[in-house]
Amino acid sequence: MTDPTGRPDGTVAESDAAAYERWGPEVLAFVADYWRRLERLPVGPDVEPGWLRSRLPASAPTSPEDVERVLADVDELIVPALTHWQSPNFFAYFPANTSWPSVLADLVCSGTSVNGMSWATSPAATELETHVLDWLVDLCGLPARFRSDGPGGGVIQDTASSATTVSLMAARERAGGNRRLSDLTVYTSEHAHSSIEKGAHLAGFWPEHLRLVPTDDAFALDPAALGAALADDIAAGLTPAYVGATIGTTSSMAVDPLPDIAEMTRRTGAWLHVDAAMAGSAALCEEHRGLFAGLDHADSYTFNPHKWMGVGVDCSVLYVADRASLIDALSITPTYLRSAHHDAGEVIDYRDWQMQLGRRFRSLKVWFVLRLTGAEAIRSMIRDHVEWTARAVDRLGSDPRWVVAAPPMLDLVCVRHVEGDDRTLEVLDAVNESGRALLTRTDLDERAVIRICVGARTTEWRHVEALLDLLDELA
């Protein structure tokens, strides 16, 4: 057998190890060079549908190719068709930050390639996940009921959409399971993320039993409207099973009135889930924890370290106050998955906390980032982004051509042009076509709005200022 370096080896493992030694540094150098070039690359791709496929061979290779040729193709074919989420000029959507500690952790994760579906299949994968999620409870000042040393605990899902779906399944289970689906209702804000509607569908709730509750002038859920919807359904003989509240909606970063919502769910017995996918990382900073008032009454809570903490996609944390309903809803244990420690109740088997069976060693990313970056550096980045957003609000708010379309919150500001939707969208398209920055649209009060999210880990104030200059030039 010959390894990719041309040396004969006695085993496959030796050959693989030699290949890692030879080509690993080359790949790391490629990534490092990509990061150095990011600021100069157009943030969004300028390609038409089919651009990449038309440049790829019609059939797969039947023999090995040269690694350097593959890396060259990545540079020539892949990079031009990427949206550069790590660019300092990325102000679109919400961020999906990574960092060098996270990348190195993913390398270890891929190199060991364990399946952490249960404690028995790799004890370290389970115990590290439990431990670092307890760390995050303390670092973010979250309710102690989310720690693993009580009836609750945390688990890493791939995205907040999966976290929402399994929380809906747990709520369904607590409310009576599949036998009661014809009676169970789900409530969330009309500005909540679409994952609640999709998750309710996947969990089997009837579409006609999903209530999209109106919002107030700040685009947060209106508690009076929620109270009326709950009362109407109870009077009709239905059972409120789930209320999805949001701390930081996607469109405008609105914060639902959690204390009021929590009181209503306490009275009705509905499961309270809180989605803070983007805003949750702000709880690392003590000055922002007022946004999370009422969270101590939530049955489940999710936020994404892969948005604002430098932990690469995919890493969404789901906490539950009582894991029993979650496990009851998701645990299927055939003989081949049983172990003595599981049967004795001595260990956590995270396969019972998610829809999939298999799971990657995601907690390595959190562990590496917290150890090699430190919580204080993450706090400093968040504080910078919030401050720079406030500066952007001051400048845009003083420009008569722009209207700040929603109360600014954390690192997001929404603006629209005074001349109306067409002009707003013209400016948005011009920014994105320039390649100098990337922004996204939403609609608020049935008007087109430009979202500016200052959240990329590589962004500095000069990049925000350059975006503001560009908007000034185009407006």
Structure description:
The protein is an alpha/beta fold. It folds into three domains: 12-95, dopa decarboxylase, N-terminal domain, CATH 1.20.1340; 107-372, Aspartate Aminotransferase, domain 2 (3-Layer(aba) Sandwich), CATH 3.40.640; 375-474, Aspartate Aminotransferase, domain 1 (Alpha-Beta Complex). Helix content is 41%, strand content 12%. The chain contains 15 helices and eleven strands. Strands 1-7-6-5-4-2-3 form a seven-stranded mixed β-sheet, with helices on both faces. It has a four-stranded antiparallel β-sheet with strand order 8-9-11-10. Helix 3 runs antiparallel to helix 12 (363-372). The longest helix is centred in the N-terminal third of the chain and has 26 residues, at 12-37. The radius of gyration is 24 Å and the shape is globular. 43% of the residues are buried.
Secondary-structure map:
Elements: H1 12-37, H2 67-78, H3 100-112, H4 123-139, E1 153-157, H5 160-174, E2 184-189, H6 194-202, E3 210-213, H7 223-235, E4 239-246, H8 258-268, E5 271-275, E6 300-303, H9 305-308, E7 316-320, H10 323-330, H11 340-343, H12 363-372, H13 375-397, E8 402-404, E9 412-417, H14 421-434, E10 440-444, E11 447-453, H15 461-474
Parallel strand pairs: 2-3, 2-4, 4-5, 5-6
Antiparallel strand pairs: 1-7, 6-7, 8-9, 9-11, 10-11
Helix pairs in contact: 3-12, 4-12, 5-6, 5-10, 7-8, 13-15
State the end-to-end distance: 64 Å
The largest β sheet comes out as: 7 strands, mixed
Shape: globular
Low-pLDDT ranges: 5-9
